[in-house]
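Internal ticket #5521
Category: modeling
Description: The requester needs a full-assembly model to guide mutagenesis choices. All entity lines are attached below as received. Residue total reported by intake: 625.
Assigned to: D.W.
Attached entities:
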Amino acid sequence: MMALLRRHPALLPGLVFSAVLLLAPTFAERGTQNDLWNMAFFVVLAAAWNLLGGFAGQVSLGYSAFVGIGAYTTVLLAQAGWSPWLTLPVGAALAAAFSVVVGLPTFRLRGPYFTIATIGVGEAVRVIASGLDFTGGSSGLRMPAGTFDFTANYYAMVGLALGTLALVAWLQQNAFGLALEAIRQDIDGAEALGVNSTWVKLEAHAISSALVAVAGGLFATNFQYISPGSVFDFRLSLTIVLMPIVGGMGTLAGPVVGAMLFSYLQIKLLASPTLRDSYLFIYGGLLIVVMLFEPRGIMGLWERLWSRLPRRRTPAIAEARGAG
Amino acid sequence: MQKLAIVALNSLLAAGLYATMSYGLAVIYGVMRIINLAHAGLMMLAAYATWALNDRFGLDPFLSMLVVAPAFFLLGMALYATVIRWLPRSSAGPSMQSLLLLFGVWLVLQNLAYAIWGGDTQSILTPYTMESVQIFGGRFGIPQILVFVVSILSLVGLNLVLRRTFLGKAIRAVTQNRDAAMLSGVNAGQIAAVAFGIGTAFAAMAGSMLSTLYAFTPDFGRSFLLKAFCIIVLGGMESFTGVAVGALVLAFIENFASAYTSIPVSYQDAISFTLLVVVLVAAPGGLPGLWRLLDRRVVAR
């Protein structure tokens, strides 16, 4: 047991994290459960985005489009009489399909150009969604009555969050994860070594957008009301991007740390009227500080502090681990 | 025929403003190879500054540019000295780090506006806001025409500075080849600070002018940032005449699309965003790149 823990240092905190989330309905109050639901929602968004944005380094600022597609699919199909659960895979499939449509042209772009193009795509989707009839325009849509079940939704969201993390952890050790890492470090080098970068990016984009769309569907069921202003909002894209960046891009734990920090911030900010409007200041300030001092986020800071600690390992190994 | 003339004139008037808001972005990109996402926040802040001057002192928005633009020039220099210059320099293209850093600056500026002025929609009303003149049988608002005139004046001014002064020549030299410019004795760090100031001042002028045409909130500026970016990509990122051409092209496409097709006006923004993606993907070298593309197929990068 100890040997296993030593080999996988993330296992113990991961198990504690999962246990707390899964057992919360038995001991926590409803308000706390709501906060945990929100955190799990953020974990899904951040961890899924991190697959493409962190591991492959393709920073997309248009992810609210996928939250919106998932949420609208759920509401529209539920209004047509579907069970909300059955709508989730449909939303995921639609989002994945849309991610390919968006990815095919935009993945030809590199670095900041890709990022700017994704702002354009996200904005175009929002503008069009606000103008269409079936989205309810800017006044939004309501879920049909009788679809609300918080406990089931809670378990679904927590399950989705843990499933997303498990999937990311598994992909990370896979050839697929290595390919993503190679693309981030040097896309030409990766291509030269036989990585089909466009295909790998499309896959990562499809997987992450499908996960985000499922979270969007659960969001719609939990809040019972959506509008282009809530699910296609630029601020949502912004939060999705900031969580993994502040936590630490391209790591498994980074998005979780970021999601915990941001859901905590959100609770604190919404609770106090003086801070309510200053969330942009805090988000922006965090972003500036992270980019200037530690582009690898909280996880990078943690590693830096960790490597300063005296230890028994030989320095060469510690060095190699720190770099890897 | 008359409709054609009116739409064309409308496009021309819009293009002047578009060029002003794009030049700031282009100067900064040229000298520092960074995409200034804070441009949107600076335009928004300038709109508020203009509104505050008008509200408090009754200063005309166009006259207040004489105060706002120099103030923002200093603000840009300060921003460079405190934040931007600590970025690691990337030789090749713009780095993700710089993009995200400036994104953070944008968010802070946005919050500043929320903190000072709140989230209500504001607009500037001058005695001539509702006035218009008749040209070719079409009505053109006085603010629209004034904006065009001021835009042209500011662009001529910038062009004179860039072509005639040592500073301008240094800016162009750094844009073309940073290392060679430094070898010739140009202090690239100083030039970058000045260029950031100029870029910010142009963002401020664009913001002041936008405030006479549109209502605004602290969230204002994002769609104009995307348009400006679309224009400098169209113009080939570095060429200063390219920016003017890009502004004309975007303005004509937008105006003609809403005048001659059934695309509703509310989708006008979606046109430029889509165009941005299309141009980035299909012609990464912009219009100058397209000329070269006629000769040989350039591999997209």
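Resolution: model delivered.
Comment from assignee: Residues 25 and 239 of chain B are 12 Å apart (CA to CA).
Ticket closed.
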